[in-house]
Amino acid sequence: MKETQAYIERIKRVNRGYQRLELAVDRSLTAMRAGQALLVRRIDKDYDIENWDPYLRELWFPVAIQAGNIVAVERPARAHFVPGQLLSVLGPVGRAYRFRHKLRNVLLIAYEAMPAALLLMIPSLLAKQVGITLVLMGSARQYETNHLPEEVEVIQAEDNLTWSDMVMTLGWADQVFALVGQGDSLRFFGEILAIMRERHYDIPANYLFGVIQRDLPCGVGACHACALSLRGEHKLQCIDGPAFDLTELRLN
Fold first, then answer.
1. Would you say residue 28 has pLDDT above 70?
2. pTM above 0.85, yes or no
3. Is the per-residue pLDDT at 72 higher than 90?
4. Higher pLDDT pick, 71 / 50
5. What is the pLDDT of residues 179-226, one digit of tens each?
6. Are 79 and 11 in contact, with CB atoms under 8 Å apart?
7. Distance between CA 151 and CA 132 in Å, rounded?
8. Distance between CA 105 and CA 17 in Å, rounded?
9. What are the two backbone dihedrals, phi and then psi, of residue 37, each rounded to the nearest 5 degrees?
10. What confidence tens digit (pLDDT) does each residue in 76-132 have?
11. DSSP string, the chain
12. How would you write 16-32 as a 3-class SS string?
């Protein structure tokens, strides 16, 4: 990890709720893989005064890496950005997602969170002819997906977090990556794990991963504020994450 500067080259609206920022970054960051993230702070004194936060930096997951040292991210449409705006960037943070060698189908779940942290994997998986289903739960159902590749199957879950053909979808998936909102992430993961256990009796190791995206104070494992309790050990979101086997993560 190192600190570099980036600037916003262009801004596009991808749907009613979110905008896509194309960042001109240091060349080293174009080697980032799905699962890795950036810790970003705006270089703007007025912004620092009006929006001061003890964490100082925001966790941004790339949704695309383009030619010309461009990394794209999605941010809420209500956040104000302008082309040319300078950013201080620390990265990359975390480990890339780990996929099974023989992967045919992947299930992605976004619950009370926009699915940005899951999107970078989509182009490479589709290139390998891996089938992808994206399930939107809770407030994530408000996320419009027309800009995603048409090969991605999108399912809107019901209020009780289920959907039609759920048993078939779970049986079809070789791996599941579940992303939840920051507010009460362990409870959200517990709800996902419970409904899956009701319909998928045996959840094997390295099948169901929880993607954690809590704010990070340091990003380098120095402060241990992002420590998580797993069976028999502790791990850090910034070093070992963001994806953890939900059958190993202690949710209480």
1. yes
2. yes
3. yes
4. 71
5. 999 878 989 999 999 988 888 767 888 899 999 998 888 887 888 888
6. no
7. 8
8. 28
9. -140, 175
10. 999 999 999 999 999 999 999 999 988 999 999 999 999 999 999 999 999 999 999
11. -EEEEEEEEEEEE-SSSEEEEEEE--GGGGG--TT-EEEEEE--HHHHHHT--TT-SEEE-EEEEETTTEEEEEEETTS---TT-EEEEEEEES------SS--EEEEEEESS-THHHHTHHHHHHHTT-EEEEEEEGGGGGS--TTS-TTSEEEE--TTS--TTHHHHHHH-SEEEEEE-STTHHHHHHHHHHHHHHH-S---TTTEEEE-----SSSSSSS-TTEEEETTEEEEHHHH-SEEETTTB---
12. CCEEEEEEECCHHHHHC
Report how far residue 94's alpha carbon sits from residue 235's, in angstroms, rounded to the nearest whole number.
12
CB 109 within 8 A of CB 137: yes
Instruction: Give the burial string for 165-195 (b: 16+ CB within 10 Å, else e).
Output: ebeebbeebebbbbbbbeeebeebbbbbbeb
- The amino acid that residue 81 corresponds to is F
Please name the residues in contact with 67: beta carbons below 8 A apart, sequence gap of 6 or more.
Answer: none
Output the six-digit token pair for 44: 């703007």
Which of 99, 107, 22 is CA-nearest to residue 67? Answer: 22
How does DSSP assign 59-74, residue by residue? EE-EEEEETTTEEEEE
Which tokens belong to 82?
């302008």
- In the chain, the amino acid numbered 143 is Y
The position carrying tokens 């890795």 is: 36
* Dihedral angle of Cα 97, 119, 236, 220, to the nearest 10 degrees: 100
